[in-house]
Amino acid sequence: MKKIIALTAAVAFASSAVAQNPIIRDQFTADPTARVFNGRVYVYPSHDITPPENARQEWFNMPDYHVFSSHNLVDWIDHGKIVDQATVPWVNSTSYSMWAPDCIEKDGKYYFYFPAGFDPRLGRGNAIGVAISDTPYGPFVPEPMPIPGVGGIDPGLFIDPADGKAYITWAGGGMRIARLKDNMLELDGEPQTVALPQGGGLKEGPFMFERNGKYYYTFPWVINNTTEALCYSMGDSPMGPFEYKGVIMDEHENGCWTNHHSLVEFEGQWYLFYHRNDFSPNFDKNRSARIDKVFFNADGTIQKVTPTERGVGISDARSEIHLDRYSSLGQGASIEYLNRWTNYFAGWKVMLPAGSDVTYNDVDFGTGVRKVMARVLAPRGASFSVGTGSGSPAATFSVPAGNPEWMVVEATVAATPSGVENIVVKNTATPPAPGAGRMAQGPGPVEIDWIRFY
Ligand code: FUB
Fold first, then answer.
1. Could you tell me if 191 and 150 are in contact, meaning their C-beta atoms sit under 8 angstroms apart?
2. What is the DSSP letter of 203?
3. How many A from CA of 290 to the centre of ligand 1?
4. How far apart are CA 409 and CA 55, in angstroms?
5. How much distance in Å is there from the Cα of 379 to the middle of ligand 1?
6. Cβ of 449 below 6 Å from ligand 1
7. Residue 172 CB–ligand 1 contact under 6 Å
8. How far is CA 103 from CA 17, 45, 238, in A?
9. How far apart (Å, rounded) are the C-alpha atoms in residues 240 and 233?
């Protein structure tokens, strides 16, 4: 094993190749609506920012929208800003009120629906506007005025595959739904209130989809009077009636008050897109988009989804594999921010005391690799192994004591894995005997930022 870099700079997270949660690493991305257009997944989130001085502090501040896309749920492209509060004619340009959006395709045009606060000279409260593009990524041209007759937030669009009719649902005085005219810009009839279970607290963020002839009406709901869980009802037609079926995702354990989601099928697998405040643990109005797999029961009901750090997608062995986005943690292993003082976006590290391990699933080794690098912090020295699910350690590291800084070390891969494998990284030092002094134990804990094969 050879030490190749003594002091490394902070890791620069590309927002473009992680296959881990959260999926976007260089900005906040809340309320992710995912759509599949032309074989790519597009995510239309809202854009939380740190409250600017001229805005309401301790509240949501959302000035614009970006769109992101991926062909594999791993490599994400930020297509940049598509709509801005400063350039929509009807929007109050200093309201930072561009909440959860949606986008849908009809007859080759892409219709982006977004809520925002009305310019007080033109109207009152929140309205829902539309911007239109010839591509899923813009340029989008906003309509001069919002959709007449729709006051509220969180537009969710649905086109019935049975007959091509479009619907819009939103939150405002209850959950509302209406047919859209073929121009996608006006309601076709009076909005109706969607009958959902009573009790609990706020419901918002509706998202509809169809699967095997069943219509799903899904929504965040403060069901236990605490924070939002993701819930759903099912029915036999787009306007209901819907029968309440239960919870898709429980309330976030970390107390993030909102959750907001979408479900999409991509290459035969269903996914739940949702958000949590991963890069802002002390302020839950700065949120980040996440993805986990969704599975259905034979009767069409949805199996509950548990949030994971690992997320979805296959990681390239030759990319930086952040073990802190683990699939499972062995006893004693834990996760901590790399820099909890000035930059949560620096990400996390896994901390492995002697004897503990971390497993990371679905790494593609291709036809094989020869070496493995690891970014580690181990002032007392450490020994750890990198193995695959199929057995023997692929590589062993022995980090000498005495370096108080992060460093990148490398080792030769002995048993060359190929194809897609799970990785197990284990601190091979002997755990201290009960009561033994810390320094008596030789190699000790190791903190790992990432490993990368080549
Ligand atoms: O992002 C602002 C609001 O928080 C959304 O519109 C709601 O659904 C909730 O996620």
1. yes
2. B
3. 15
4. 46
5. 44
6. no
7. no
8. 24, 10, 18
9. 9
From the CA of 102, how far away is ligand 1's center (Å)? Answer: 12
361 burial class (0-12, 13-18, 19+ CB within 10 angstroms)?
Answer: middle
pLDDT in tens, the chain (454 residues): 433 332 222 222 334 556 799 999 999 999 999 999 999 999 999 999 999 998 999 999 999 999 999 999 999 999 999 999 999 999 999 999 999 999 999 999 999 999 999 999 999 999 999 999 999 999 999 999 999 999 999 999 999 999 999 999 999 999 999 999 999 999 999 999 999 999 999 999 999 999 999 999 999 999 999 999 999 999 999 999 999 999 999 999 999 999 999 999 999 999 999 999 999 999 999 999 999 999 999 999 999 999 999 999 999 999 999 999 999 999 999 999 999 999 999 999 999 999 999 999 999 999 989 999 999 999 999 999 999 866 666 899 999 999 999 999 999 998 778 899 999 999 999 887 776 665 555 679 999 999 999 9
Question: CA neighbours within 13 Å on the CB side: how many for 59?
Answer: 13
Taking phi over 0 as left and psi of -120 to 50 as alpha, with beta for the rest, 221 belongs to beta
Q: Are strands 40-46 and 30-37 parallel, antiparallel or unpaired?
A: antiparallel
Are the beta carbons of 303 and 73 closer than 8 angstroms? no
Beta-ladder partners of 374: 409, 451
CB 313 within 8 A of CB 325: no
Atom of ligand 1 nearest to the CA of 220: 8
Rounded to whole angstroms, the Cα distance separating 363 from 393 reads 15
CA of 90 to the centre of ligand 1 (A): 20
Ligand 1 atom closest to 287 (CA): 1
- Top mutation candidate among 31, 47, 175 for ligand 1, by most atoms within 8 Å of CB: 31
Domains of the chain: 2-13+314-453 (2.60.120.260), 30-294 (2.115.10.20)
Question: Ligand 1: which atom is nearest the Cα of residue 204?
Answer: 8
Residue type, 415: A
Ligand 1 lined by 278 (C-beta under 6 Å): no
User: Is the four-CA dihedral 254, 224, 96, 190 of positive or negative sign?
Assistant: positive
Nearest CA to ligand 1 atom 3: 99
Q: Whose CA is nearest to atom 1 of ligand 1?
A: 99
Give me ligand 1 centre to Cα 177, in Å: 18
Regarding the beta carbon of 128 and ligand 1, being less than 6 Å apart is answered no
